Amino acid sequence: MPEPGPPFCPTPSPSVIRAWIRLMRTQRLVLGAIEQDLKSAALPPLGWYDVLLELSRAADERLRPYEIEERTLLAQHNLSRLLDRMERMNLVRREAFDGDGRGRWVVLTEAGRSMQTRMWAVYAASIQAHLGAHLTDSDAEGLSAKLAKLMR
Fold first, then answer.
1. Quick one: pLDDT band at residue 2, thresholds 50, 70, 90?
2. What is the DSSP letter of 58?
3. Are residues 107 and 61 in contact, defined by beta-carbon separation less than 8 angstroms?
4. Which carries the bigger pLDDT value, residue 73 or residue 27?
């Protein structure tokens, strides 16, 4: 007996395929431009900002590694290496949180807060240059609403 496959779905229309291709290409181009702007300013990559932002939003500016993973969508093996690099730069520190010392918090440092502020100045300008300058506020609201539909 054949194994069941995914439920039957009709082939996407040419319009849906075109939207998909443009969404993926736009994401790659805009993220690439933002990464280049950060690099040109001698700042770390965007993933670092995401970690710093989530830590700054957390109670006591600390999270467990799996919480950072969930909030940033970084893969665990990438996150572990990233946190090692960030700790060497004194942007975060790890602290034990349970009696046996195996559990760890990742804690934002003062240097990490400062780096987040420096990165945001470049990141915000880059978002405006590569996205905001091409859209009216009405266009941005419409695009945001359409993308929210895909996130549900």
1. low
2. S
3. yes
4. 27
